Amino acid sequence: MPFKALKKEVRELIGKALNELGYPTVDFLVQEPPSLEFGELSSNIAFEIAKKMKRNPYEIASNIASKIMSFEKKLIKEVLVAQPGYLNFRVDKCKYFKTTIHHLLDKPGYSDIGKGKRVIVEHTSVNPNKALHIGHLRNVVIGDVIYRLLKYTNHEVIVLNYIDDSGAQVADIIVGFKFLGFPENPPKPNIKFDQYCGDYVYVKVNQIYSQDPRTENYRKIVLKELENPESEIYKFARNIIEKVLIEQLKTCSELNAYYDCLNFESHIIFSNTWKKIFEQLREKNLISYASEGKNAGCWVYKDESGQEKVIIRSDGTATYIAKDILYAAWKLGLVEDFFNYEKFFVQKNGKVLWRTTLSEGEKDHPTFNNAELAINVIDIRQAWLQSIISEILRKFVGKESDKKYIHLGYEVVSLSRDTAKEIGVEVGDKEFVHMSGRSGMYINADIVLEKLYKLSYDETKKRNPEADEKWLNEVAHSIAVSALRYSLIRQDLGKILVFDLKEALKLEGDTGPYLQYTYARAYNIIEKYGKLPKKVETFDKLVEDEEYILLIELSKISDKIEEATTKLQPNKIAEYAHKLCLYFNTFYEKHQVIHEKDESKREQRILLVYSFTKALKTLMELLGIEAHKRI
Q: Looking at the domain 2-91, which fold is it?
């Protein structure tokens, strides 16, 4: 971890200098300066001491620099003072190049910040009445990249997918099949069952509700029957839900996203465990009985802003959030595991997918709860309810506990004007359009993937006219997945994402295919070299600015991975990978590698290129993007 080691050395050198100079101990920053011309790191230590001692910061900085230069140093070569009192540090390039490249040749960016900490990541959680649309996929990709980051930094990670199988949206498709005469099988054989249920049955049923409100009584009947596991409608619904769910999971596996367990909402309801945690919440005075006002007769939680949320209604029934509180408590092991489990199927990556069940289940199963940290990936429209759950659990476990529940929110996905038109949605003068499931105004994930696949197939065949069909199909699919995943992860989670099909597939610019293209370009150099480069002990020939800039950026890989993991900012990995590719391509366009006449310089550059491929492949794996030697 060269850059982290560099920061540590700078802090230690400053600390030692302060001690020997008799300067007071103060908090100070060690950070990157605005430009590499000032050095690799800079510190404001002189300003902080000047405040305390009422002295000139430039004089203090000069004294510290002079003292540090008298010490034995590892990676630091020079300390410079800049007006009005900044300390700037320059590395010994040969030593730093060697340290960085040798680190990258081993396990690039690996960090043990997790130390085996048990973490639950829950994502996807799409109602099992429809196919995934592009907005759902943002949830899938965010959750999956978070999982990959946590796994890479040595966390023990369990991935859950919550299945809301007892709500109104599921009831609506059952109404369509049971009461409104919709056939159970799609009218066309090439339509996936989840697409049929969502695009046709669900939309049409809601249209019928609006045309004839009396038909909504069917929904009430179904919802009531779904509360009885012995009813014929409940059993029928189980079969429909499972068929939809299998198709949804196929879509997720196409995007390289997998799970450990599917947790069904109805199994929480039927467990009757809510009563136990209700008593505990009441004993801890976390909820209170409202004797007057609009919530009279209800048990409520008053959040830290003073707003009340009903937990138990006046008729004694639990609200939606009550179930969520219980489920969140289960994740952190605050209640006994009330689920039974059974194997569902083996996923495409070879991992067994488990599911909760009302049957006895299997005794020998993994533990899916009792985590130290539970991360719930849900869009920001659920922010207030999620904050209530987090508040309640924080108070429930007490200050001494390390257990935490985190809502990882993100903004919704909209469609660009051009993409909306491509799927037949007219948006007028609008630059983008928000999606709506009830009105059928959205774009299915499978359709997006298929369109991206066709575009990438045509482009791949154009670049590789002699390639065989199997390779073309594999690479085209990989590029399509890369384009889709990257376009959904590259932006800050707090910003609305406007998805555009053609933008996503561009080989140039801030795209997934650009990473794949750059990796293939770099690996081609290694293949032409004809052998894997061997380690060298000196890097005295890497003196060009482009080599230096690329190397410095490569040295930050551990810091970037740690930052993205601890701050739960998966977009930072995409941002960093893109930046590395820009630096590499600038280097390669300006300097010879294979055809460099100086043998020593050639070997050192080959190692730099090979180190870049190792680093980029690691970042691509974290993003769920495949690296190909040729595209």
A: Gyrase A; domain 2 (3.30.1360)
The answer to whether the CB of 36 falls within 8 A of the CB of 80 is no
Q: Which residue has the tokens 């083996």?
A: 346
Per-domain residue ranges of the chain: 2-91, 274-333
**What is the C-alpha to C-alpha distance for residues 330 and 159, in angstroms, rounded to an integer?**
14
Query: What is the layout of strands, in order, in the sheet containing 340-346?
Result: 340-346, 352-357, 261-264, 156-163, 118-122, 373-377, 404-408
A 10 A CB-CB count for 139 gives 23
The answer for residues whose C-beta is within 8 angstroms of residue 260's C-beta and 6 or more apart is: 158, 159, 160, 351, 353, 354, 366, 368
Buried-state track 150-160, b at ≥16 Cβ within 10 A, e below 16: bbbbebebbbb
Query: Residue type at 41?
Result: L
**Residues near 265 by beta carbon (within 8 Å), at least 6 away in sequence:** 162, 163, 164, 165, 166, 167, 323
Pairing label, strands 86-91, 41-43 = antiparallel
Question: How far apart, in Å, are the Cα atoms of 75 and each of 211, 221, 346, 354, 629?
Answer: 75, 73, 49, 50, 34
Give the pair of three-digit tokens for residue 220. Answer: 């009430």
Mean pLDDT over each residue of the chain, to the nearest integer: 92
pTM equals 0.93
The neighbour count for residue 308, using CB atoms within 10 Å, is 15
CA dihedral 385, 386, 388, 394 (to 10 degrees): 170
Q: Is the dihedral of CA 479, 481, 484, 486 positive or negative?
A: negative
Tens-place pLDDT, residues 18-43: 999 999 999 999 999 988 889 999 99
